[in-house]
Hints:
It contains 5 helices and 5 strands; from the N terminus they run βαβαβαβαβα. The model has no long low-confidence stretch (mean pLDDT about 85). By secondary structure, the chain is α/β, with parallel strands linked by helices. Strand 2 (about 45-50), helix 2 (about 60-85) and strand 3 form a beta-alpha-beta unit. Strands 3-2-1-4-5 form a 5-stranded parallel sheet, with helices on both faces. It has helices at about 25-40, 60-85, 100-110, 130-135, 155-160, and strands spanning about 15-20, 45-50, 95-100, 115-120, 145-150. It is globular and about 50 Å long. Helix 1 runs parallel beside helix 5 (about 155-160). It starts with 14 loop residues before the first strand and ends with a helix. Helix content is about 40%, strand content about 20%.
Amino acid sequence: MVSKRLSRLEGHRRKFMAVIDGTPECEKAVYYAGRRAKNTNGGMVLLYVIPEGDFQQWLGVEQIMRAEAMEEAEAVMAKAAQKVREAIGIDPEIVIREGSAPEQINALVEEDRDIAILVLAAASAKEGPGPLVSAVAGRGAAFPIPVTVLPDVLTDEEIDALA
């Protein structure tokens, strides 16, 4: 059970969350989430999850590996946020976590009670819709907030018309 959403209360606004996961289709989700946020006077959250890795090395090596992973995440997020600012004209919140993506999405939704919609994009490749869409769709329990899944074949103009 997810905590009550606060996005409709005074002083709050509904936030759309997109996950930056390095897949080509995630750019479609980011664009749609940004357009929906702008068109509805909402906010946008970009989440990057550093995968659980084998950081169980010697202490010095582990610290270096974690620092490198964080530097890479910060660079990817800075680039994504800049694209959103330039293409859409809003300033997204940036969140970087470490762990399992579905677990970190759930944790962030629980912590930020203004997040009301998760936006994902499904790949059209024969391998399937992508790891995140598969993980969310394959959950035994329902996801705690609505999830919008876009096909990756939509153009920016088509997304503009839908958002």
